[in-house]
Design goal:
single chain, 70 residues, 2 strands, elongated, DUF2281, DUF2281 domain-containing protein
Amino acid sequence: MPIAIKGYYEKGQIIMEEDAPVHTRTEVIITFLTAEKHQSEGKRIPGALKGKVSIPDDFNEPLDDLKDHM
């Protein structure tokens, strides 16, 4: 069962803010929550997709796949 424990990384060590709930050798996965912005992030530009996205005329029509269920 996955358990999360908050802590921080400093000078090559991981410091946990509470005791681990296990006392034997256990596999762990460590996720670093960095405050750095990823390259894909940036300012949103309203209308940036104008002309690139279209909605078909029959968008609100029932799907053929669901005819048997109606």
